[in-house]
């Protein structure tokens, strides 16, 4: 009777796992875990998103209240427009040093990145910018101004209505 009891207990007790089997199972578990995590990583990779940048040629309506010499930056554009007695003109706001967007200031434009300063007509008055801000082609159609950011013009070129 006692032997039967011992035999039953021996059958219920888990067999000790040999060291070699344990290491093999651990390696297999680590491999499966690594595969699973790699799969999760692939699933979570950022998807390619192609977003169209705004066209560099656009039309805009100048505010009626725009004063001569007052800068007007159309929303979402890196261009500033001015209107004076000689016409309308546009100057790029992209710094000629490393491409930051310059900000209109009382004395012209200032670059927030490395401190270049530009006169109101875009020429450099303080480096490191190597070149003036380019003037861009503009044309007038009624109350609307067409700006072509792909075409630079001589500084001083203004569109008359
Ligand atoms: S990018 Fe404007 S000064 Fe450097």
Model description:
The protein has 161 residues and is α+β, with helices and mostly antiparallel strands. The protein has two domains: 2-43; 57-153, Rieske Iron-sulfur Protein. Helix content is 22%, strand content 28%. It has two helices and nine strands, in the order ααβββββββββ. It has helices at residues 2-12, 19-43; strands spanning 57-61, 79-84, 87-92, 103-105, 108-110, 117-118, 124-126, 135-141, 144-153. The strands form two sheets. A five-stranded antiparallel beta sheet has the order 1-9-8-3-2, with no helix packed on it. A hairpin with a 2-residue loop joins β2 (79-84) and β3. The longest helix has 25 residues, at 19-43. The relative contact order is 0.13. The mean pLDDT is 84. The protein binds FE2/S2 (inorganic) cluster (FES).
């Amino acid at each position: 009777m006692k032997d039967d009891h011992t035999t039953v207990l021996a059958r219920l007790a888990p067999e000790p796992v040999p060291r070699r089997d344990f290491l093999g199972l651990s390696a297999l578990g680590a491999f499966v875990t690594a595969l699973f995590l790699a799969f999760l990583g692939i699933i979570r990779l950022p998807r390619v998103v192609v977003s169209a940048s705004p066209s560099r040629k656009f039309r805009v309506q100048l505010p009626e209240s725009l004063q001569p010499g007052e800068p007007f930056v159309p929303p979402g554009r890196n261009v500033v427009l001015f209107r004076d007695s000689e016409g309308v003109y546009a100057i790029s706001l992209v710094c000629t040093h490393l491409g930051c967007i310059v900000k209109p200031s009382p004395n012209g434009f200032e670059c927030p990145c490395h401190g270049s300063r530009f006169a109101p007509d875009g020429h450099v008055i303080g480096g490191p910018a190597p070149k003036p801000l380019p003037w861009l082609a503009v044309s007038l159609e009624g109350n609307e101004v067409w700006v072509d950011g792909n075409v630079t013009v001589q500084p001083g070129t203004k569109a008359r209505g």
